[in-house]
Amino acid sequence: MILIHYGELFTKGLNRPFFQNMLLRNLKAAVPKSQVYLEAHRFLMEFPKGTEAAEESNALEAVGKVFGVANFAQAIETDGTDIQDLVPAAMTLLEGKNGPFKIEVSRSYKNHGLTSIQIAQQLALALEKKGVHVGVRNAVGTLNVEILQHKALVYGQKHAGLGGLPVGCTGTVVTLLSGGIDSPVASFLLAKRGVKSVYLHFHPFKDKEDAVRRSEKIQNLVRQLHPYTQSTSLYLVPYNFFVLDALHVPERYALPLFRRFMMRVAQRIAEKEGAEAIGTGENLAQVSSQTLSNLNSIGSATDLQVLRPLLTYDKHEIITLAEKIGTYAISNQDYIDCCQSLVAKHPATSTKISELEKLEQRLSPDLLQQTLNCTVLVSVNTDSPKVPA
Question: Which CATH number is associated with domain 2-160?
Fold first, then answer.
């Protein structure tokens, strides 16, 4: 089985069962063939008899991508809590490995006849008799034992989880997803705080069918993010109507006006999806449209809160995280980015809400509805093969 510990959920007091149930649901979704249950503040994931080692390895990888997990390990469940019950499990885990090993024991069941230290000492003596080198000094590994009421869990190496909160526990957010590096990382970080994303992408293609067919890069980003975010809903929104209307405004203001337009579209999608905020990959002062004044002007176009998890990250930090979650190579594939076509030679770096509102009066009053009428919702098939990076 896989033993799974959570971290931050311990701080949730009387609300803890809600968060536990969300994490339980997400673990089952990550490894559908397993049985997952909560026992004494830990999750246990069991597999049917005949499960191959490769499947268990894949399950370990999947658990490592579930937010809310503090650490996890392959474990052996014993039939009892006496020393003679622990030794066979320990020998199985240590088979073929050279020590010395240190032993760490914790007791969820405090009425066990021995203390944690006494259990560790007696187990060490029993293992030494079988030729296992046990010792704290220069230890090459740890044998962990958790004592429950009627059984024990014995395991070796603990793997660090992602931490954070279970996806879905803090609500739904419409997340703007471009073909660039930043927005997929922003989606990952929003998921870490329990957010469920509904993705929104602005594309250059001529119709709905063309958009679905030619937005494979964006769909691949959603597929790559899915184990972390558990999100598959993708709205594909045309931006060609705005580009035509933007001919009626000064070139240097086209991009901040477009970003305001994006906020309005996102708000309409949020109303449909029951989302409570908008998520973006914006980063303070990374580009001209992301100065403090421009971010203020852009955010004022919506009544919803705008979440910007990358606001203080530098580019190197963002790239490092993108590489870690596997989106960097996909983001670097060629694709027509909507904002690039609107970047002026001398863009406005300090805009005022009032001047942008005045310029918006030049845009067609039907622009928003016309765009929404040509928007298509896609449920991305996560089983589809990814384009080789």
Answer: 3.30.2130.30
In whole angstroms, give the CA distance from residue 142 to residue 128: 15
| Residue 293, token pair as written in the block | 């004044």
Instruction: Judge whether 374 and 208 are in contact, CB under 8 Å.
Output: yes
Contact 218, 179 (CB under 8 A): yes
Per-residue pLDDT reduced to its tens digit, 125-143: 999 999 888 988 888 899 9
Q: Specify the pTM.
A: 0.90
Structure-block tokens of residue 74: 């392959």
Long-range CB contact pairs, 49-55, < 8 A, 24+: none
Measure the CA–CA gap between 63 and 144, rounded to whole angstroms.
19
Question: Out of 39-48, 199-208, 328-337, which region has the weakest mean confidence (pLDDT)?
Answer: 328-337
Domains in the chain: boundaries: 2-160, 171-379
Q: Which CATH class is domain 171-379?
A: alpha beta
Contact 106/147 with Cβ under 8 angstroms?
yes
> CB neighbours of 142 closer than 8 A, spacing ≥ 6?
101, 102, 103, 104, 156, 157, 158
Judge if 2-160 and 171-379 fold alike in CATH terms. Answer: no
